[in-house]
Amino acid sequence: MKKEQTITIWEGCDPGISKAIEHFQDRWHPYSIASRRYPIVRLIQEIIDPAIASYMEALPARYSGFVSGVGAGMDFSETIRLVGFDAMVRLQRQLLRHFVKTVDKQGSRDQRFVATIESLTGLVWDCACKRPKKSTATTGVNLNAQRKHGFCELCGELTEFADFMATVSDEQVNDVELQDRKRLELSHQYCVRHRPILANGSRNPAYRQAKRSLAQFDLELERLNRQCAKRATPQAASGDPLVDRYFYHYMLGQTVQPADRGELRNQARLMVDSKLSDRKKQILILQWSGLNQSEIAQKLGIERQAVSKALKSLASTPRMLLLKE
């Protein structure tokens, strides 16, 4: 049986918003962005708007400027109708980043606000991805619109099928491209980079490499998600304090938020493809802390030559992974 799509409610979310999201999910089964009879934005207006209004009334006025549309006197659903679901997610992520940089003091009220907005942003994204139980394919495109829409299983890019359907829905594909695309079997599991078989029929080495490292990818993604959700203290739960410290300081240098699922997945893929092992993470955090190679070797109980070799291998590692300013 196909697993029902669920909406993630972040730990610490406002109880009123949490209850509204749970009620929303209980009723959203027939609703979607494609349905005329059951438009999902109408359900947002009915259930989510009143909950947001009640929550915002309990906060200082300055907080309203960090919720899309609310600062301008608009309802949440009204803003979605105006800009669309995808743009709403991008806009809310930008506002939340600005809040974290300028207002967030990590107090209980600010932490609850962040968790609440993360939950609402996730709801909007899930609404954008949700499809009706029964739907018809776009005219002229011989594709099943009920196939999986979402991220590539191996990175943070949209699958070939999801990317194509998004393009079709935006009416950004010309007739010639539609005919060409109809001849391809678009993957609903992988993006263009990671599709198992290339267009010329040959096996894709990028797919094979990424598939072999899938377990490590999932592990790094889990660590990034945990640390991103609670930045104030090390949260990666790797089992090694040095590795946890690496993720803590790494995430402090990022503006990505938990709702930025694609970006987090791409960062996890970058760590794996860069062969950034836990040993290298240990060495990086100790070097960042000011220890020289001999001190690092002594701390880790390894030879200094091993530290030197590891640091040399990091020369080609993307700068964002190296904990440097």
UniProtKB/TrEMBL annotation:
A GO molecular function held by the record: DNA binding
Matching InterPro entries: Sig_transdc_resp-reg_C-effctor
Taxonomic superkingdom: Bacteria
GO terms for biological process, alphabetical: regulation of DNA-templated transcription
The name this protein goes by in its record: Uncharacterized protein
